[in-house]
């Protein structure tokens, strides 16, 4: 079984800010039913671009719920510029750490946050640019490159832990290995 | 907190009677059964008795029983022996809902050893496509291996019927009866099977002991190569204590078979009907008519399994989402995918697997806990609309 | 009658401390360590601790420890993995005094799979012909497997020296340390070994649990293919109780190592000198300077081993003639034959293998019994002239 | 461990008629040190060809000793013609049976008896006629054929149990199988 910190367990059993935020003016959605986890983040942003309220709806495992809950707590009170700098590592740290196999939950949090900010600013995020590597979890090479760089990932297992990519049928594992190697080669 | 254990298809509690039977052989009679001293021989006698009891459970002969270290070893050994017996045959056949001990082995043989692997599919109820199975039998087939009952859904394959058709053609037939043993009657002779796997820890014996039945007269090639143990069919010093425990467990399993199909089945049916009644958008996986009496695989729309398990865990309830062996992996269970269970309920599937130790009070507590867990989780699910 | 147990190279008594450690996990905490409930997880924590203790005994990292079902499985797995890692290399090297778990496997690979098997011989003292070993190393060599200590004679091979030479050439090195563990210090790092086998029941853990050490970073191919247990390196539900027991046994073995080389060694030396003094035409087998502290292999001219054992048995004394694994077979021990021990004393060889449970009084009783047994048997032997 | 009958254990622990018979007039020897068991049978035969005394010296396992002891008890009082009809089965039966892996001990008894009778009668037994099959235990095809016929042996394992042939290096096992098959083919 996963070794969850008390903080994770607490945020799972007593999630903060659950449910739709009626007067949200920024919404970010990520994940899907097929993937096994999904997060919908609601932000209420005031005229100074400060996040005055946040809430979430999550489908997923305990760490997905806890990451979502943590995320809402972290961003409340931040300006959008500050929020844009929140990393998946910040979410994991807030929870006292996540099992490495569950790091993708924190990644999902960061992704939803980015989308919500873009939504508020009216920016259209290019959906999943780059070349599709993992079909099971719809992960592209660019996403893998980002995650490898940001988190110092070394193995395909790491990539699966952070992005799920490779954790399904496994047929993309060779390609993932190539992508990791290309990042390493770049230095 | 009292534990409510409904994860018996993953592993079972070692029965008190089994522990009692084993205890004297750790510190007291620890001799090696192949040794030349009375001390070792005392163990030898107990092992012969145990072998008889195991044989009795499946209506085999004691000579046909090989003790192994687990169901996985039994499965691997059966296939390995068949491939050695027929080095020129290149097709091997199984289903796409087998336990990883067969499925991953077959994939390894396909990818690394060039075997022509046929994975016979199942329908939405989890029943095997028999026409396709029979059509795929060829002169070139080294072995057909099919599980007797599925660990995740409890769906039972018609092994006696299949085995007869397969062996009629002179093709070796192996069945993984790890989940069937102790839950439904097994008669290796009537069923025409050549090889059959059992695992102790699924029937209240300890973990780390298994059985491979090998029909008399069959050429068998050992998988663990070493000393002359098990009549040269499996090297390695005998796991005496666990063998003795397994003998007792098989004796108990034979006695308790009627209880499985009455008391345990009634509890399972009660749990099922209560959950269906009290929670909306719920579906039971697998052929309802054709299922192990202790197993309930049930999907709850729009929620995710691990979350449910943790909420059950808080109440001391042990269950499983999909197969225990694949928990830790991210993909939805291959069995549910093969049955084309929609993602919506596949991700939210829980397996309750009962034993005769369970009670009606426990079922009521499970139902109560589930009602509140599903409510809580759906309240935060973006996919739940009602 | 009290049992005097001097057959510890065959198998050992499970230590009381080990039994105590295991007991709660049969009937109480029987969960599956990979399950998603606290109940299973409690077992998971104990297993992590056990893995650490096993690693400590041989100075390894817990990640490098794979639990198997016995020494034989560890040996088979190591070789199988090496052959999978180097499918094009066709030479495999071992000695002619290995345990059947290696020797019979190598013979199978030679006879059925066409491998070029080199069996490095030993001299009359049982010491390995190192020149021949080094000469036989080739680019084509997939693995060298040599036992650390011999089960029959106790003779110790200079593994650290050998392993360094072998691995320097980029050749995989495996050692069967089943008999060495707990009797002499083992440090896998200092010794440069890539893989190393242990067996629980030789160090006061239960039968049916073994260990394969696999050096970090080495590509490993599982032998039992199935679920994701042991980080995908060995399928099959973990033998939790025995793993927990083995952890304790390794902790005890580490503590008792000094006793082995003082108290136990003194008892063995006492037994040896008494037998040599009191019985004529007796010879000790194996390199006296280079031997496990607990082992005495000793041949009595013109009498046959089984007869001696039965006379010892009548006095409650457990010992062994040659290897326990081959008792039941008719041929004289392959180890003694490889050492060119003359038939006259090979057939009459008895192995006494001691543990810290033995006492001086027991040794005296053995000597007394042996004196009279050998006298009786020689009186009826057509080959005894004095 | 072998399951020895109480009779076997008794004859091993308290063997009858042990030692050289000083005034023996018929001696039969079989087995060797290399094989792991050997028996020297001493008979004292009177003018009516009746065996008035018998003794043995044996090197071997418990069942070898017990078979030898039993043999001497069986033949005492018999005429040589009667003794010539004693089979290895009789010896095993006298002991309440032998473990099948140990039947060769009774065969050794019968063989020593035949040699002793031949010795008395001054007949030179052709030593091991036929073609050598098992070199480890020096067993010929004719001996195997005899044993297969007399004891209804079916497998190479049976042959090993009765004659030891095949129980050493094992390289003769294929040839033993052929010999068995040829006997079966004869009917
Ligand atoms: C040196 C050696 N290797 C391997 C083994 C095999 O161990 P196990 O009986 O646990 O398979 C033994 C003991 O039987 C042994 O002494
Ligand atoms: C159907 C089936 N086959 C094989 C196995 C493997 O058994 P073991 O864990 O004893 O290796 C299991 C259980 O895990 C199973 O359910
Ligand atoms: S394509 Fe990546 S896991 Fe299936
Ligand atoms: S020749 Fe027959 S066993 Fe060796």
From TrEMBL, chains A, D:
A Pfam family this chain is assigned to: NifU_N
Residue ranges constituting the NIF system FeS cluster assembly NifU N-terminal domain according to the UniProt record: 3-124
Keywords carried by this UniProt record: Iron, Iron-sulfur, Metal-binding
Superkingdom field: Bacteria
CDD domains per UniProt: IscU_like
Gene3D superfamilies, per database record: 3.90.1010.10, BFD-like [2Fe-2S]-binding domain (1.10.10.1100)
Domain BFD-like [2Fe-2S]-binding positions: 132-181
Single Gene Ontology MF annotation: iron ion binding
Transmembrane regions listed in the UniProt entry: none
Signal peptide: none
GO BP annotation list: iron-sulfur cluster assembly
Name the UniProt record assigns to this protein: Nitrogen fixation protein NifU
């Amino acid at each position: 079984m996963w070794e969850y910190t008390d903080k994770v367990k607490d945020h799972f059993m007593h999630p903060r800010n659950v449910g739709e935020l009626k007067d949200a003016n920024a919404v970010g959605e990520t994940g899907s039913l097929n993937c096994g986890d999904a997060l919908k983040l609601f932000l209420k942003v005031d005229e100074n671009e400060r996040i005055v309220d946040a809430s979430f709806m999550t489908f997923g495992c305990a760490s997905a719920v806890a990451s979502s809950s943590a995320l809402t707590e972290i961003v409340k009170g931040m300006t959008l510029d500050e929020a844009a700098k929140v990393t998946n590592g910040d979410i994991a740290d807030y929870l006292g750490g996540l099992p490495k196999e569950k790091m993708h939950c924190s990644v999902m949090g960061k992704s939803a946050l980015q989308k919500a900010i873009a939504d508020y600013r009216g920016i259209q995020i290019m959906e999943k640019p780059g070349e599709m590597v993992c079909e099971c979890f719809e992960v592209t090479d660019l996403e893998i490159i980002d995650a490898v760089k940001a988190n110092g990932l070394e193995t395909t297992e790491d990539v699966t832990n952070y992005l799920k990519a490779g954790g399904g049928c496994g047929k993309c594992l060779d390609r993932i290995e190539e992508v990791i190697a290309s990042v390493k080669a770049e230095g | 907190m009292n534990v409510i254990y409904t994860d018996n298809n993953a592993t079972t509690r070692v029965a008190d009677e089994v522990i009692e039977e084993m205890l004297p052989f750790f510190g007291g009679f620890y001799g090696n059964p192949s040794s030349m001293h009375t001390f070792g021989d005392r163990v030898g006698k107990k092992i012969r008795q145990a072998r008889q009891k195991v044989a009795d459970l499946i209506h085999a002969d004691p000579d046909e029983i090989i003790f192994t270290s687990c169901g996985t070893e039994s499965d691997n050994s059966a296939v390995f022996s068949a491939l050695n017996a027929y080095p020129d045959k290149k097709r091997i056949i199984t289903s796409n809902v087998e336990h990883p001990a067969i499925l991953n082995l077959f994939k390894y043989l396909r990818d690394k050893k060039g075997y022509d692997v046929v994975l016979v599919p199942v329908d939405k109820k989890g029943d095997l496509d028999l026409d396709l199975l029979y059509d795929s039998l060829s002169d070139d087939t080294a072995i057909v291996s099919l599980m007797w009952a599925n660990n995740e859904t409890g769906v039972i394959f018609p092994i006696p019927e299949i085995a007869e058709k397969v062996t009629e053609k002179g093709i070796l037939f192996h069945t993984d009866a790890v989940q069937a043993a102790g839950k439904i009657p097994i008669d290796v002779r009537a069923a025409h099977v050549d090889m059959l796997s059992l695992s102790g820890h699924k029937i209240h014996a300890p973990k780390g002991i298994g059985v491979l039945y090998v029909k008399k007269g069959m050429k068998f090639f050992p998988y663990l190569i070493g000393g002359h143990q098990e009549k040269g069919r499996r090297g390695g010093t005998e796991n005496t204590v666990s063998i003795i425990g397994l003998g007792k467990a098989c004796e108990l399993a034979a006695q308790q078979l009627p209880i499985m199909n009455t008391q345990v089945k009634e509890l399972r049916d009660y749990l099922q009907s209560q959950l269906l009644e009290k929670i909306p958008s719920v579906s039971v996986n697998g052929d309802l008519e054709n299922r192990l009496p202790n197993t309930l695989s049930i999907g709850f729309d729009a929620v995710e399994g691990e979350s449910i398990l943790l909420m059950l865990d808080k109440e001391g309830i042990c269950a499983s989402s999909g197969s225990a062996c694949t928990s830790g992996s991210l993909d939805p269970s291959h069995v549910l995918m093969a049955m084309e269970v929609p993602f919506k309920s596949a991700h939210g599937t829980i397996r309750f697997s009962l034993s005769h130790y369970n009670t009606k009070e426990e079922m009521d507590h499970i139902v109560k806990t589930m009602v509140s867990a599903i409510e809580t989780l759906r309240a935060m699910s973006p996919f739940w609309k009602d």
